[in-house]
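Protocol step 4 of 6: structure prediction from sequence.
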Amino acid sequence: MNNIKTFLIQTIDNIVTHDFSFTLIEAIKYHNWYENKKIYDYWLQENIPKDFIMSHLKKDIKDTIPVGSVEFILSYLNKYYNINNIKPLNIPKQLMKPEYLKRWIVERATDTNIINAGEIPIFVKDNTKIKGWTNIVETNRGYPPGEYLISEYVEIESEWRAFVFNNRLVGLQNYSGDFTMFPDVELIKKMIADFNYSSAYTLDVGINDKGTFIIECHDFFSCGLYGFSDYKVLPLMFINTWNKLIGG
């Protein structure tokens, strides 16, 4: 590694608050200890820094990786790269298969308010931007104009987050529901192979009486770890995703 990568880690009221930030700091310390030299560095920052802070860090902008909330990352992308939006992965087209979905899902674009005239609630999520309009829409209730991923609302007994790097499953953590209900790992591996995505990401799956099914995917930034702590790959996952976001 020619240039030391510096992680610009967000604080809130001068406190590190995100689980991925705590774990990344420990991973940085691990790498520097294991190699007996500085492999990575980090800088704690409350807000997106002024240009003079970059000069103070004496860093090429490409060697600095922001880590924090979605809003923190978007502000940084806007300021330094003139990137105003990140399209969510949601459910990639490669994974729109009955064996993975186990419920009906449609993509819909509309320029008018739509009423849910069905007999059951639906889950509506913006398909164009992170942190867009998302809600469970009851029958005879509407949702605003936009482009959405719309799915049948189903009960979920257990939810798990799979961590994927270099098209390999590197972690699997329960984050909601019954932790004794273990997902179908071979099905998850099949999803990973079908998606064949070059960047690090998370793949959330649910479990109910129909078995294991995909909930959604996320590029690996601002993602809760829920106990995932593979120090060896964690910094590389952040770097890999950041390079993808900036087109590097």
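Step 5 (inspection) to follow. Helices lie at 19-35, 51-57, 70-81, 98-101, 185-195, 234-245.
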